[in-house]
């Protein structure tokens, strides 16, 4: 339905007598009983828009809602047609003054337009707080919240309606799907939203995510927890400082060194590089250089995933661009190990044209970084 028709429908409902709507809906439903073959089938409602007719120097547009099949919900169609008919009658007669509008029945509005976002969020919150809720109930509630908090306004309301803490509580659930879902809701809500980032620090959500990163055995859930941490830390100095207090950077490097999969490492190196280019670049870069083992970059560059290798070089380049750390990066990360890695990659490229094509961007980048480290 386009914006004009949607507005017309709402206007018609707002200016209709609820009792008259009920009467016409009942009449339409009674007729449908004689003709419908299966009232439970899912059907669509089609808008019928006859051609515009000239009338007295004005344009009069006729609208109707028609079921797209014999099994359509005739009661709903009748009610909506009644609303639209009322809208035309009142509009043409010029009698629907704003102060004389009939009060709208809430049940009818919800039936036609659906519940507002805050109401849906509160219902999801109540489900999360329900001690008798099943795992499936909780998964549905998290899915609903995930969709709703994509709106910044709704994300800000998450804590206002006391739903943030119930979501965070599920980070410690025994069910992997609930831990994953909770982390994803938090990541979506916090993304580029300073108000929500602050709320998540105040409610210790960042602390819980850090604990999840430490204890989680499933790498996929760890990756979602990492995304949520990144969303809270982005352009948020207070968040970065708190994460450092929690030994979060040490934890991340530990995870990276203990057989993390390539997908997790790509995400990790990308996030660390982003943090090295923001307001807290000096703190993050200094902590990373302090904590990294001398062979950290060489070990990760030995992995076969080319995309991962490129992201590792992006991170190394970002560290070198922090002026006060240039000499420390060179002295602590041992360039000769990177030189050995360079020779290995060059040998691989020489042995295979396919590999050489894969490395056509990687090798020049590494050569440039080594030259930068020697300067």
Automatic annotation (TrEMBL):
Q: Which UniProt keywords apply?
A: Repeat
Q: Does the keyword S-adenosyl-L-methionine apply?
A: no
Per its UniProt record, what Gene3D superfamilies does this chain match?
Leucine-rich Repeat Variant
Return the GO cellular component terms, semicolon-separated: endoplasmic reticulum
What SUPFAM superfamilies does this protein map onto? ARM repeat
Q: Which residues form the Nucleotide exchange factor Fes1 domain?
A: 83-158
Entry-linked PANTHER family = HSP70-BINDING PROTEIN 1, PROTEIN FOLDING REGULATOR
Which protein is depicted? Nucleotide exchange factor Fes1 domain-containing protein
Species: Capsaspora owczarzaki (strain ATCC 30864)
């Amino acid at each position: 339905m386009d914006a004009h028709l949607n507005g017309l429908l709402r206007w018609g409902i707002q200016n209709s007598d609820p009792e008259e709507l009920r009467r016409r809906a009942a009449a339409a439903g009674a007729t449908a009983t004689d003709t419908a073959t299966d009232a439970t089938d899912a059907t669509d409602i089609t808008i019928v828009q006859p051609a515009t007719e000239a009338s007295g120097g004005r344009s009069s547009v006729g609208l109707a809602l028609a079921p797209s099949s014999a099994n359509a919900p005739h009661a709903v169609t009748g009610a909506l047609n009644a609303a639209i008919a009322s809208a035309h009658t009142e509009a043409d007669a010029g009698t629907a003054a704003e102060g004389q509008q009939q009060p709208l029945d809430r049940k009818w509005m919800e039936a036609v337009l659906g519940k507002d976002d805050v109401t849906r969020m509160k219902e999801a919150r109540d489900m999360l707080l329900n001690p008798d809720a099943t795992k499936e109930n909780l998964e549905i509630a998290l899915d609903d919240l995930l969709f709703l908090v994509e709106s910044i306004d709704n994300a800000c309301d998450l804590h206002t309606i006391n739903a943030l803490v119930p979501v965070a509580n599920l980070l410690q659930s025994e069910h992997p799907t609930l831990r994953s879902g909770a982390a994803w809701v938090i990541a979506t809500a916090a993304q580029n939203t300073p108000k929500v980032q602050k709320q998540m620090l105040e409610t210790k959500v960042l602390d819980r995510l850090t604990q999840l990163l430490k204890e989680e055995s499933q790498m996929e859930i760890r990756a979602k927890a990492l995304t949520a941490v990144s969303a809270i830390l982005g352009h948020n100095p207070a968040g970065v400082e708190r994460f450092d207090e929690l030994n979060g950077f040490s934890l991340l490097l530990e995870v990276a060194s203990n057989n993390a999969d390539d997908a997790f490492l790509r995400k990790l190196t990308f996030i660390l590089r982003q943090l090295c280019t923001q307001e807290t670049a000096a703190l993050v870069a200094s902590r990373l250089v302090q904590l990294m083992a001398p062979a950290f970059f060489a070990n990760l560059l030995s992995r076969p995933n080319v995309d991962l290798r490129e992201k590792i070089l992006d991170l190394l380049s970002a560290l070198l661009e922090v002026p006060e750390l240039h000499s420390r990066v060179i002295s602590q990360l041992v360039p000769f190990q990177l030189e050995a890695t360079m020779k290995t990659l060059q040998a691989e490229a020489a042995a295979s044209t396919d590999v050489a094509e894969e490395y056509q961007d990687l090798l020049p980048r590494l050569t440039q970084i080594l030259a930068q480290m020697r300067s």
